[in-house]
Amino acid sequence: MQFEGDGLAYWYEPFAKTPWVDPDQPNRNRTWSIRREIYDEFPDGLTPDEAQQQARRFLSINGSPGLVGNLTLDSVDPLVYTKNGEQITFPRQMVTADTVIRLDGFNGQRPGPLVYVNESVFNPEADSLNCQIDSKFRDFMTTAEVKIHGRDALLPNHTINVNTGFSMGVQEAILPWSYAKGCGYFPWISHTMWKESYPNGNEPEFYEGWLEMIQQEQNWPKNRPNMYSMIRANPEGRGTKNNPIDATYFWNVRHKNVTTHNSKVLLSQSGTIMSSQFICVDERGNLMPVSFHVSVWNRRDANANNTPRIPSNEDIFPGNVVLQPVTKKNGRVEYMYVDKNGTRYYKKTSRYPFYEHAWFAQDDTTGKKTDDMGVSPEDISAIMYGVGNYYDRPGFFPGSMRNGDAPTGIFTDNTEWGYSLVNEPSYTDLYSAKLDYMQIALCPVLIFCDDMPDRDLYFIGRFIKKPEEGIAK
Fold first, then answer.
1. CA-to-CA distance for 40 and 342, rounded, in angstroms?
2. Co-location of 249 and 386 in the same domain
3. Most-buried pick from 54, 297, 371, 386 (CB within 10 A)?
4. How many domains does the chain contain in total?
């Protein structure tokens, strides 16, 4: 670029230009051609000749769009030539990136233009191939930029922003799922028992194979209690109207601010669980025919105090939907919760998941808020997965509670549920060496079971993660 002495006029000569827009070449200049100026910065130290060579190369690639687009082959295969000049059919299923195709008949031309395939996606269900083609033999990124019209480096708001076409196969790159570290085993520490029993990694089928492992004497719950989550027998017995019992006793994690109990499962940064499995056994590994409640929480201090509380105010549910008046020996009438079988009486304000309006923020009938239940919105939002309420309970496999089947103590659920732990307080600096895997991804699992109050119950389970899927171009 050169300026006149007065600084009011200037002229410049581009390093590279196409003759179709060069006014100095009247025999080749096309007045109807669109002139488009591209600004490109050169590295420091380039001579004018070197800059001109680089500009000409840039012009050869970007000066005109060439033939760019997408080619779909859904019923025919392309033709190729052998070394002997013989024309044969090439299977479209085998066309990959870096393949060169000649489009005979395109725009009425024979032979047609040669195009370069820089992206190839085959759909096995439709038996069709879709590929991105470029007659100027550019790579995938450059072709993608050319297809974004009206964008160049002259305008900052027109800078190129191209999807690279690559997605990671593992979405939890910082805290990945690892069965080797114990992910999915409940309680988490039980993964050591599984590895001892099946060192080759061929774990048994649910649930008969589980019992074979548990019923080995060295794996009995009485000999290895830490490998199970336990609900102890209630010393108060079954509970009568004159001596109601505290339902809170039947939770596996009863106390407030308990952070060291073993009833936790190790997850990962994020993911989707495709199968949840539990069984209940006695101290010698024998299957116990009970029903129960299971929930997974994303707060490390979750315990029975975060679960529904039997209301203390009988006026909350008109018509005694939940509480029933009970006349005690002294003639005094007191409201208590009685289970649906009419065999067990519970103290008011104790934690119980199976009465009709548990887990709800308001009564569906009256619309009144049930603040007396003691379940805060924070507690409800902390539940990542939960099964077992007034209407249905796990533990009836292969039958169901709704069909009137007897409990079996076996539970398997193939309903998918997702989780994400990136909002945990400990999940701050992703690249910090202090990032504690266990503090972030070790989540409490709460279990309630009152079917056999006079027996010690032991629970063990597994969560199977859905495999991640990724696409690379």
1. 84
2. yes
3. 297
4. 3
